[in-house]
Amino acid sequence: MARPIAYSPALETREPDETDTSVGLREQLHTILETTASDYGHAVRSVHAKGHALVDARLEVLDNLPPELAQGLFATPGRHDAILRFSTNAGDILTDKISLPRGVAIKILGVEGDRLPGSEDSRAQDLLMINAPVFAAPTAKAFLGNLKLLTKTTDRAEGAKVALSALLRWTEKAIEAVGGESATLKTLGGAPHVHPLGEQYFTATAFRYGDHVAKLSLVPVSPSLTRFSGEEIAIDGRDDALREEIDSGFDQGGTWELRVQLCIDAEAMPIEDATVEWDQAASPYVTVARLIAGPQSTWAGDTSIGREDSLSFSPWHGLAAHQPLGRINRVRKPAYEMSADFRARVNGCPMHEPMSHAD
Questions:
Q1: How far apart are CA 202 and CA 254, in angstroms?
Q2: Which of 65, 73, 75, 78 lies at a CB distance of 3.0 to 4.6 Å from 69, suitable for a disulfide?
């Protein structure tokens, strides 16, 4: 494999109106937060509002990693408690009949090292991933445009959303049948009803990886998880089908691999445009750690909702060695902070950064 490029702040290029776009993003997300809090009498996340599972796991960093992979959190072999939150991307609590892209947020606990600004009081490394290798918007302004569409439909006309989702899924399957794919259709409700435990997840955006730059991926590897790969869930008459399927499917626990794809060419593997998939033939994903979870109940009603209320996930919670890169990451930093502060204030429940599962 070619040598990975060296990290440099010069790799990032700001858009001229990026600050204005960031302000607009916060305004749209704040509108979503106010709308849902008013309707529910309870504040939920402005994106990925509906959680489907909380999984307690253990991260094991592999030993004998080559120098280019032994960076940041992964520089030293060891074990860390971790929490995984599975979700879908809407900012309101929807029936699972509306099929949206899947997401997983990982909080790795007890991580020591120089911190990113705003996370100095934490000892966690957060990783936010989706079940697609690329992001849906090439620029921050396009990201804001997509968000405005979601804001207009937040917590409205659920029956119409169910019907639209069914139509979009049919359209997406027709496109895929001839070798195509539409990230836009999937984002709006045309994603297949795949089982979250069988999916591969990606950061989609780039991150600093110590001396280098990388994207990360979470891959199910144990048979207890891979048995669900490609499986579509029956959702008729089941508003919370995903919670039920993950909970029943975790009777054997599971193991994932955390893999890293190093950037070897800043032009062919752009940092600023997260819609470009990095060539895995040129730079394959390589395993640097395992996430291991034993059999457990992954959703316990109000108990899980209360636990969710006290947790926040952000790509900017972590080590300076894993700084989020690119325009999408830059504009969502203040938006994530605003969302967490809003939930803490409205729910009267401060955000909590645990050091371990016991905490």
A1: 18
A2: 65
Taking residues 295-302, report their average pLDDT.
Answer: 96
Exposed/middle/buried for 292, CB within 10 Å: 0-12, 13-18, 19+? middle
For residue range 140-168, list pLDDT tens digits in order. 888 777 777 667 666 554 444 343 344 34
pTM: 0.89
Place of tokens 């606990």: 109
Pairing of strands 286-293, 254-262: antiparallel
Question: DSSP of 6-72, one letter per residue?
Answer: PP-GGG----TTHHHHHHHHHHHHHHHHHHHHHHHSS---SSS--EEEEEEEEEEEPSS--TTTS-G
The answer to whether 88 and 101 are in contact (CB under 8 A) is yes
In this structure, the number of other CB atoms found within 10 A of the CB of residue 327 comes to 26
Q: Which run of H or of E encompasses 141? A: helix 140-153
Instruction: Check if the beta carbon of residue 315 is closer than 8 Å to that of residue 135.
Output: no
Closest CA to 44 of 330, 352, 349, 354: 349
* pLDDT tens-digit series, residues 7-42: 999 999 998 889 999 999 899 889 989 988 998 999
CA distance 114 to 321: 8
Query: Do the Cβ atoms of 333 and 314 come closer than 8 Å?
Result: yes
Q: pLDDT for 111-151, tens place per residue?
A: 999 999 999 989 999 999 999 999 888 888 887 777 776 67
Judged on CB neighbours under 10 Å (0-12, 13-18, 19+), 1 is exposed
